[in-house]
Amino acid sequence: MNYKENDFIKAFTQYLEAERGYSSHTVENYRRVVEQFALFLQGRKKNLLEVTPEEISSFLVHLKVQNGLSRVSQQNRLSALRTFYRFLKKRELVPFNPAQEVGGIKTEKKLPAFLTLSEIDKLLSFLKKKYLENKCFLNARNWAVFELFYASGLRVSELADLKRENVDLHNRLVRVHGKGKRERIVPFNESARQALQEYQVFRGLFEDKEGYFFVNRRGGKLSTRGIRKIFERVLKEAGILEKKVSPHTLRHTFATHFLAGGGELRVVQEMLGHASLSTTQIYTHIDWERMRRVYDLTHPHSGRRGN
């Protein structure tokens, strides 16, 4: 990779952060993909400005053969290259976007994992009991983290970036800055408010360095990595080992349980911060038997109304 290519990649990452508002995690992933592609081209005595759609296809096949890359991972890398070449084309560094001419990689939709009602009840009851038995900062914070995740469906990065000024305990609302710097207001339930109020007492003991709501034991921002470590530890302690659970699992659990309780898909879309309703529609896998019963009872031609 030559000096000029490094400049292109650096400018690209700055563009993703400053203009597109991508998370640091996504920016880092996109940077790695472009660097990997540049090295692949080097072996073919080409550079990033001399690319055909066929070379991008060959790169994806190479990753599949050499690294056993799944179709989802291939699609993610194709998306990164499409974004990169869109950036170069806007700056008139390439005549067209070669990645745009590569057909999408068909993927099988995988239903998101989620916890059952009994599992989430077990988890939250465990955290509350642990706090009541030992009212300390860590127990209060961990209980509040899990309650807010389940009550609001926030992304892990959104919870980590949450500022104190954006948490309204009185009205049970949080102001969230999501993907693409889109802002939204998300409500939470009374159980979450109780946990957040208890945590707020301990949060007030720390110097307010940067204003983040959730902090570590030193008063610094609680990172996404820190949150994931908390998940691993708490789930083990709570005895929920049957499923692989992450912060994102609670996001899925929130959406699934909300819809199962009769919530509207559009409301879930707003709360999750999805730009498109089609993204939210994956959650319609929930409780098909319940949906069938509702249909039979309400549709005028079902033959069961009034029975």
C-alpha Rg, in Å? 23 Å
**Percent strand:** under 5%
- Overall, the morphology is elongated
Helix content: 55-70%
Distance between the termini: 73 Å
User: Count of DSSP helices?
Assistant: 13
Chain-averaged pLDDT:
83
Question: What low-confidence regions span 5 or more consecutive residues with pLDDT below 50?
Answer: 287-291
- Number of strand segments: 3
Task: Name the CATH homologous superfamily of the largest domain.
Answer: Intergrase catalytic core
CATH class of the largest domain: Mainly Alpha
CATH-assigned fold name of the largest domain = hpI Integrase, Chain A
Strand order of the largest sheet: 1-2-3
Q: Could you describe the largest sheet, including whether it forms a barrel? A: 3 strands, antiparallel
Structural class: mainly alpha
- The CATH architecture category of the largest domain equals Orthogonal Bundle
How do the helices and strands follow one another from N- to C-terminus? HHHHHHHEEEHHHHHH
Number of domains: 2
Keywords: Cell cycle, Cell division, Chromosome partition, Cytoplasm, DNA integration, DNA recombination, DNA-binding
Subunit structure: Forms a cyclic heterotetrameric complex composed of two molecules of XerC and two molecules of XerD.
InterPro entries: CB, DNA_brk_join_enz, Integrase-like_cat_sf, Integrase_catalytic, Integrase_recombinase_N, Integrase_SAM-like_N, Tyrosine_recombinase_XerC/XerD, Tyrosine_recombinase_XerCD
Organism: Thermatribacter velox
